[in-house]
Records
---
Amino acid sequence: TKLKVTMVAWDRHDNSVITAVNNMTLKVWNSFTGQLIHILMGHEDEVFVLEPHPFDPRVLFSAGHDGNVIVWDLARGVKIRSYFNMIEGQGHGAVFDCKCSPDGQHFACTDSHGHLLIFGFGSSSKYDKIADQMFFHSDYRPLIRDANNFVLDEQTQQAPHLMPPPFLVDVDGNPHPARYQRLVPGRENCREEQLIPQMG
C-alpha cells in the first residue's frame, strides 16, 4: 500500500512539522533540515486531527477514526496521555475534530455520533459532582417557520434566541436539582424557586 499523508501541522514555534500517515503513524520532522526526529505510534486507524498546543511547542493533540485522542510530547517523542472514545452500546466514536482553548488549559473534540468531548489539564475533582447526563429541556423540540420564513420554537412560537434560558434535564427529561440549573448562562443568580421548572 502506498503511504499517504492524511494531515499536516506545525508546532507553535515552527521548529517541527508533524505529518499523519495512513499507516497509523505520526512523523515529527525538523522543519529546517527535513530530518525525521520521531515516529509516534499509538493510533489504530488513520489520523485526521493534529492540533498543536497554543503556546507550548512540545505538546500536540492527535485524534482519528479509531476513537483515540492522544496528547504527545514532541520533544521526547512519547505519549503523555490518551483517551479512548467508547460509546456504551455502540462501540467507539471516530473523532472528527479537536481544538485547544486559547489559554491551553482545555481542548474539545467532536465525534461521529455528534458528541462534544471536553478535556482539561489538572484535577477533575470539581466535575466529579456533575450529573452524567445533561440536556437542555428544549433540545430536540420541533422548529417551524413563520410567514416571513423566520425560525420559531413550535411550542412557544418564539425565536429560539429570544427564549428564556433552558432548564437542564436528564435523558428522560427529568429536571436536575437547582444547583445544576445555576450552570446555565442566565440562571447563575436566580432565586431557588426560579430554578425549579413548572412541569405540566
---
Amino acid sequence: MKAYGQLTPITVTDGERVIQMGGRLVDLKGNEIPDGDAGKYYAVLDGQHRLVAYQNLGLDLNDLVICEPLNAELSITEIIAQMNICTTVWKKSDYMAAPAMMLKEANEVFDFAMFLHGKACPLSTISLWCFGKKSLQAKDLVECLNTKKLPEIFEDKAWFRSSIRWFKAAQGKFKDKFLMNRYLIDFITKQQNPDEDFEQFTTEMERKINALTRDQADQIMNPHKTEGMAREQLIMDMLTQYLG
C-alpha cells in the first residue's frame, strides 16, 4: 500500500443489510456497533487488511475506493465464501508471469525456467536447475515490471548449459513428478566442487545418470521405508549410492 497505493477496491455492503441477515457489526477495533447505527456504516466483505494498512498510513478515507458486490442476489455469507474459494494466493513460481509479460528477446535460460514452471515446479527448484547455487527470488521477477528486462542472473548461462544436459538425461530415467522436486538437482549442486573442472564434472554426472538402470532409478524415486528415517534422506542416500 505504501509503495503502490490502493490497487483494487475494497468490497463493502450496507451495514443495515448485515443486520437484516442476522449478523452484527463491529468496528476495526472490535467494538460492537449498535443495530440502530448500522445504516451509518459500510461492512467490509473483502479487503480488511488493505483498509487497516490504509488507515495506518494516515491516508484520507474519503479517497478510499470501494465497491459493492456485483452479484446482488447472493447472501453476504455466500459472497464471503465464494470470494475465499475463488481467490488463490500466488505461489512463488507464479511470479514467472511478470517477466513473461514484458520479455522482448528470447532467452534460453528463461525458456527453460518457464518450461519447469509449466510442470508445476516450485521456484526454489527452478532456481537450482537454472542457476545452481545462485538464487532467484520472487521479488527479482516482480522487479522486471519496473526495469522492463530480465533479472541479470538470466544472463549467466554457464550452469544452465550443464543442467540442461543433466535434465535431458534424467528425463529418460525419472518421472516428471520426481524431477520437479529438488532431490536430484539439489544432490548434483552439492556434489559440485568449485575447484574441479566444471566441464569434466558435467560430463561425468551426465554419464552416471545415463548409466542408471531401471531398477536403480526406481529405487531412487521410491526407496524402501526405513524406520526412523525421512523419505528425503532415503532418496539422498540412494542418489549418493548410484550417482555419488
---
Amino acid sequence: GARGEGKWERVSWDEVLDDIAARIRKALQEGRHNEVAYHVGRPGHEGYMDRILKAWGVDGHNSHTNICSSGARFGYNLWYGYDRPSPDHANAKVILLISAHLESGHYFNPHAQRIIEGKMKGAKLVTMDPRLSNTASMSDYWMPSYPGSEAAVLLAMAKIILDEGLYNRDFLENWVNWQDYLRAKHPGAAMTFETFIEKVREEYAGFTPEYAEQESGVKAPMIVEVARLIGQAGTAFATHNWRSAASGNLGGWAVSRCLHFLNVLTGSVGTPGGTSPNVWNKFKPTFFDNPPAQKFWNELHFPNEYPLAFFEMSFLLPHFLKEKRGRMDVYFSRVFNPVWTYPDGFTWMEAFLSEEMFGMHIALTPTWNETAYFADYVLPMGHSAERHDINSYATHSGVWVAFRQPVLREAARRAGKQVTFTYEVNPGEVWEEDEFWIELSWRIDPDGSLG
C-alpha cells in the first residue's frame, strides 16, 4: 500500500539493500548529494556513521540536539570549546546540581552512585530546582528557584565569591583571558590582575543576593551561605546541568554559562572533585584512515537564516521541504521519532506522506513508533547485545571503553557454524548496524567508480 496506509509486506535484506543503494547511487551520480540524509536521536556509538557519510561525500548528518541539549551545550562551549561537563562528584566537597539530577540523569545515571559516595565522604549537596524532587529531598540545601531565574542566583553567588575574595587567583590569572577583557572593555585601565578583579566586581555589582531573591524566590541568606560554601570548597566543587533549565528555554544557555562561571572562579576546572570537560573522561577512537571531508554544505540542516545555530535546525526540515527549498530523496530516521518528539508532529506526518518531499523514508529502529508508521522500510536495528562496536560515556572522573559484540553470532561461531551476516542468527533478522552500512556502501559503489 501507499506510505502511511499501514499495509505492510515482508521483504528480504537483499531487496532492501539493492533498492536503497540504487537510489543513493543515482543521487550521487546526478550531484544531488544534499538529498541523502541520516537523522539520528542519540547515536550510541563512537562516530562510525559519520565516517560512512564522509565516504559517501554527503553532508547528511542531522540530529535532534536543538530541541534536546544544545542550549546547555552552548553555554559550556562559550567557556572552553567543550560542550558538556563531567563532574567528579565522588571527590567533591560541594556538589551543585541544576534540577533533579540525582534520580533522573539521562545517560549519566551512574552519577547517582558518585554523588552518594561524595556525600558519604562529607560533601554538601545543593540542588536548584523549583520542585521538591527526590534529589532536592536528599540535599543539604534546596534552592527552589522560579523557572528561568537560575542565572540570577548563580551570578549573585559569583558576586559574593568575588567580593569576599573567595576566588582562586592563581587559576584566574593563568587560565582566564583577563588581559583581552581589559583591552576590549577598559582600554584605558591599568593592565593588572587587580584591575581586572575590580572591573569584574563592578560588572556584577547589580547581582546582589537581594536582587536574586526578588527574581528567584530563593532567600538571600541561603544564597550567601551557599556561595561561601562554594568558595570554601575551592577546587573540589562539582557542578552539573544537562538539559533542565538550560535547554528548550529562551536564553537557557545562560544557565550553564553562569553555572560554569562558579567553577572558573573557584579554579575547580579539571581538578579532583571539580568539573572537567566531558571529552577528558570519555574514550574517543581515532581512525587510522579517514575519508576526506564533505564538499557539499546542506542548507536544509544549517540554513543561512540561522548562522549562529549551534546544532542542526532539524525541526525546520519539513517546513523547508514544504517551501520547496529542497527534498529528501533518501532519508534515514535512526532510533528517532520526530512525529512524536517535535512540537509540530502533524507537519512531519504531512511531509512524510508526500513522495515529493521524502522520496524514500527508511526507519532504522529496534521498536515500533509513530514515525516508523510513515516509512517505506522499517528495518530492525539491535540493542547492545546485537551490536559489534565500542562505546564510552563520561560517567565519572575516569575513562573507560566498552566492547560490544553480537552474542548470538559469537555463540554460533563457537558452535562451529558459518555466519556471514549477524541477521542470519539474530531473532527477527536484526542486523548489526555497522555491517548494514558497510554492505550498503559496497552496493552503492560496487566497482569503486564513485571514488
---
Amino acid sequence: MTEGADDVAGAESQGGADEVAEPFRRLDERLEDLGRVIVRQSQSLDRLLDAEKKRSARDAAGADLALLVDLLALYGDAAGCASASTDAADRAAFTALADGLERVIVGRGGTLVTPRIGDDFDAVTMDAVDTRETGAADRSRTVADVLRPGLNVGPRSVRPAAVVVYR
C-alpha cells in the first residue's frame, strides 16, 4: 500500500507542481508578447522620429533655398570676374571671394555642381545650353564648356549647371 500511496502522492505533487508552473508559463508568454509589442512600438517611434527629422531638414533647406540660389549667382559672378581679370591682385581677390561664397553655400547645405571639360553629360545635374560637333566618337555626350555652375541641395538639383555638350 505504500507503493500505491507513494504513486498517488507523487502524482499529487507533480500535479501540484504543474498547477504552480502553469501561471509562471503564462506569465512568461505574456512577458514575451509584451516584449514584442515594445519592440514594435520602439521601431514605430524610430520611424516617426526619422520622418520628422527629414521633414525638419527639408523645411530648413526650403527656408535657405532662396539664399542659396542668390549665393550661387554671386559665386558665378565672382568666379567669372576672377577668370576674366587681367590684374593678378583682382584675380586673387575674386578667387578668394568665390572660395568664401562656396564655403557659405556648403555650410548652408548646398553643393556646387562644377563639371569639368570632358566629363560625361549628366541630365540630372546639367542643362545642355548648346552643342558642338566633335570628330571623335568617344567625346560625344561629354562637356565641351561650362557656362555656369549648378546647385544641389540634398539629393535635389535646384539649379542645373549650364554646359555646352559635344555631339
